[in-house]
Amino acid sequence: MKPTAEDLLGYLLGALEADEHRRVDRAVSECPEVQFELARLRERVAPLARLEEVESLTGASGSDFPAGLARRACEFVARESRHVEQVSNGGENGLESSKSPSSKVALRPAVMSSVSGEFSDRGSWKLQDFIVVSAVVMLAAGILSPAILASRNQMRLAACQDNLRRVGMALFNYAEAHDNRFVPIARTGPLNVAGAYAPVLKAGGFIEEDRVFYCGSAVQNGLYEVQETPSLAALDKAFRENNQQLANLQALMGGSYGYSLGHYEQDQYVGPMNLGRSFRVMMADAPSPVLANRNSANHDGQGLNILFEDGSVMHSASASIGFGKESIFLNRNGLVAAGADVHDSVIGASNVSAWLSPNLYQN
What are phi and psi of 17, to 5 degrees? Predict the structure, then answer.
C-alpha cells in the first residue's frame, strides 16, 4: 500500500510506530514515486532542519511536557522569524541594522503577522510564515502523536475483535449443521490439531477470505503473513506423503488465532460444543511461547482478544481470566492440552493437539 502524505510526514518527524516506520521505509526504498514525494516533503520542512531547538520543544513523550513549553515555543518562533526577516532584508547588513532599536520595532509587525497567520499584501506566504506554521505542526505532532498512536491501536484492536466475531458466526453456522458441535479436532490425520477449524470452515463455505483468520495487529507487527488456507485435499496429501510439509501447514493453517481444545469428562474426550455458555472460551489471539503466562504477542504483548461460546468478544490484559485467574492457554493441571473438566477452557495454537492420555488428567 502506497504511503499517504500523513504517513510520510510522520516518517520525517519520527512519529510513526515501529511497524509503520518499517513499512514506509520499505516503500521509500522500493518506489521512485514515493522517494520523489518524500524529497518534496523534506524540502518543505528543510528550513527547520537546522534548528536543534525544535527537538527540545517536541522531545517530551505523551502529555508530560516540560514547564514553559508554550513560552519557549513562542520565543523560538519569534527569534526565527526575526532571523529570516533580517536575512531577507540584506544579509549581514540586515543583521547589523537589526541591532538598532528602530529595526527591532520594525520587525515586530512581521513577527506578529506570522504568529497570527496573516499573509503579505501580495497574498503569498513569506518564509517566516512557513516557519511558524511548520513549528506549530511539529509541536502539534509531538502533542498529538501519543493520541494518534493510541487511536490506531484501538482501531486495530476493534478490527481484530471483528474478525473473531466473524469466525464465531461461522462456527455457529457450522454447529447448526452438525448436531450443535463446533469443528472437531480429529484423533488422527491432518486435522488432529487446533488449527483444523480454519480449513474446515473455508472448505464448507462458512468463510471465504483468508484474512479473517488473522489479527491485523499481528500482521502489521510482522508476526504473521496472511497465508492461503490449505485445502482439505492438500492437507490429506501432505499427511500421506510428507510429514514435514504437513507440520508446516498445520503450524500456519489456523492463522493468528488459537482454538478450543475441548475437555475431558469422566476420562472421555469431549470436543468443542455449542451450549451458549458465557464462561466457555472458544477462540483467542494465539499464545506466545516466550511471553509470561504464554500471553499473546499479537497486540505487542498488551493483552488479547477472546471469543466466548455465547458469541461475545472481550479484550483482556492477560490470558488469566475468571475468578481463579487461570490461564486460557494451560489446563488446570498446567498442561497445553484439553481441559480437565467442562469448566476448564483451554485454547491451543494452530499446531497443538488436544489428545493426551486420560491418565494425565487424574488427580
Answer: -65, 160
Residue that has been written with the C-alpha cell 540584506 in this structure:
90
Contact 200, 350 (CB under 8 A): no
Residue 185 in grid coordinates = 479436532
Which has the closest alpha carbon to 144: 81, 201, 65?
65
- Rounded CA separation 245/344 (Å): 32
Q: State pLDDT tens for residues 124-171.
A: 555 556 666 666 666 655 555 555 556 667 788 888 999 999 999 999
> C-alpha distances in angstroms, 294 versus 53, 188, 226, 272, 319?
44, 26, 22, 22, 7
Q: Answer yes or no: pTM beyond 0.85.
A: no
10 Å CB burial of residue 3 (0-12, 13-18, 19+) is buried
Query: Which segments within 213-278 are labelled E, that is strand?
Result: 257-260, 263-265, 268-270
The residue length of the chain stands at 363
Please state the domain extents for the chain.
51-147, 178-361
What DSSP character marks residue 3? P
For 259-294, letters b (16+ CB in 10 Å) and e give: bbbbbbeeeebbbbbbeeeeebbbbbbbbbeeeeeb
Three-state SS for 297? coil
